[in-house]
Design goal:
Elements lengths: L2 E6 L5 H10 L3 E9 L5 E9 L2 E8 L3 E3 L2 H4 L1 H14 L2 E3 L27 H18 L1
Parallel strand pairs: 1-4, 5-6
Antiparallel strand pairs: 2-3, 3-4
Length: 137
């Protein structure tokens, strides 16, 4: 069984930690992110350290350095996903083409990203749209 350990870090520690892990032969498992209950961005870098996944967590940042030059595609794809879905920037990452969203997708806030919304919020938006549509008929 694998243990999971969350370790807080600052934005300027991302590259040194990634470089140390790579030099020590530690695998990058995943980079993932979400908005917490207070709409604060949380980005985690998971590394397989022995029988433990060490998850280095950065909170409140939307502009971060890329580690794709250290971990290649293992970092590039999740960084591009977070850029495309949340609009978070990874400095030095090539995002000239979309990863999976259509190139001609309608843009939101001028960035072309989408963000997952809670179901209850989507229901409220749907109600508002339905009311507006019924008012036009």
């Amino acid at each position: 069984m694998q243990d999971y350990k969350v370790i807080g870090m600052k934005k300027d520690e991302i590259i040194p930690i990634a470089q140390k892990m790579r030099n020590d032969g530690i695998y990058l498992v995943m980079i993932h992110g979400y908005m917490d209950k207070n709409d604060v961005p949380v980005i985690r870098y998971d590394y397989a350290v022995g029988s433990t996944v060490e998850s280095y967590s950065v909170e409140g940042e939307t502009v971060l350095p890329t580690i794709s030059h250290i971990y290649d595609t293992a970092a590039e794809w999740p960084e591009r996903e977070l850029n495309e879905l949340f609009g978070w920037t990874f400095e030095g990452l090539d995002v000239s083409k979309r990863l999976f969203l259509p190139e001609d997708m309608l843009e939101t806030e001028g960035k072309g990203q989408i963000m997952v919304k809670p179901l209850e919020e989507l229901r409220k938006l749907n109600e508002v749209c339905t009311e507006k549509k019924e008012g036009l008929e």
